[in-house]
Design a protein that fits this description.
This protein is mainly alpha-helical and 101 residues long. The protein is built from three helices and two strands. Helices cover 33% and strands 6% of the residues.
């Protein structure tokens, strides 16, 4: 399952029992439409995420998915981060907090 492609395709169904791996990335740019989103728009997942990563993950987990969830951001600016570990940890903390609710 890929949260970016799921949202971009306007897919409504999730298949937790048939899912083997989940790739997540967030899109925050409010000026890009869902149909115009590209890999270059994909970031770590944070509070401004427009892809409903939290909702998708919650649905998968509540439906019985117990596999891996991996980041799949492609934004070019990620290569220039001065503290990538800090940014990854911040995204993981955000996700953990939201999934505990």
């Amino acid at each position: 399952h890929n949260t970016f492609h799921h949202k971009g395709a306007n897919e409504q169904s999730l298949f937790p029992s048939s899912t083997g791996l989940v790739h997540i990335s967030g899109v925050e740019d409010k000026d890009v439409s869902f149909t115009d989103m590209l890999d270059k728009d994909r970031l770590f997942v944070g509070p401004e995420d427009r892809l409903d990563n939290i909702g998708q993950i919650k649905t998968l987990l509540s439906g019985g998915y117990h596999g891996y969830i991996s980041f799949e951001p492609f934004f070019d600016g990620l290569w220039e981060l001065t503290a990538p570990v800090k940014d990854i940890k911040a995204s993981m903390a955000y996700l953990s907090q939201q999934l505990e609710d």
